[in-house]
Amino acid sequence: MKLSEKKRLQIIHAAEHLFAEQGAQQTSMDLVAQTAEVSKRTVYNHFDSKEALLYAVIENMLSQVTQDQELVYTNDKPMRDQLIDIAKSEADMLTSAPFLRIARVAFLELLQNPDMAAHLNNTKVGCMRYFETFIDHAITAKQLEVDDITFAAKQFVFQLKSFIFYPRLYGFELDAHITQDKVVEETVDMFLARYQVKSER
């Protein structure tokens, strides 16, 4: 690895730590340089603004999130079982420490930066990398009946997020009666109640 790339990673790792601890708004580029043990000039040689650095930090953190392989629709397995697999995988990612760390780093900035919010909204992670294609294939196989695939895919994921991701992000007390398995199963059953072809129920 070239020296310039090493310094770039030093800066990113220092900024990640600082942004997670005190927020991007409260972190100066001087402090980033100090923590990374490089000059302020070096920081600006790699990142011309704090926003550019924040983008790089988030992209680097996303690359470290464990994402299961893309699941492909098959006729050889019951629809419910396939959706359970997808929901479990998504739930595991949403509750993982690396993903929650990204959310905490980005959260306050997203409220003030519409461009970054739009960028992250368009960055597909977890099952959103393939779920629309999965739904489309299930429609072709006459297992699902969906008019708006994008909406249905988001509906599935947002149901999971509402119960297992946002409470953790905001630091709310988790309801002991609402287990992750329960959320997964109820999300799948609600999705099937709405979209599964009636003759196949």
UniProtKB/TrEMBL annotation:
InterPro entries named in the record: Homeodomain-like_sf, HTH-type_TetR-like_transc_reg, HTH_TetR, TetR_C_Proteobacteria
Domain HTH tetR-type: from-to ranges: 5-65
GO MF annotation terms: DNA-binding transcription factor activity; transcription cis-regulatory region binding
PROSITE patterns: HTH_TETR_2 (PS50977)
Keyword Hydrolase: no
Keywords carried by this UniProt record: DNA-binding, Transcription, Transcription regulation
DNA-binding segment(s): 28-47
Domain of life: Bacteria
Name of this protein: HTH tetR-type domain-containing protein
Organism lineage: Bacteria, Pseudomonadati, Pseudomonadota, Gammaproteobacteria, Alteromonadales
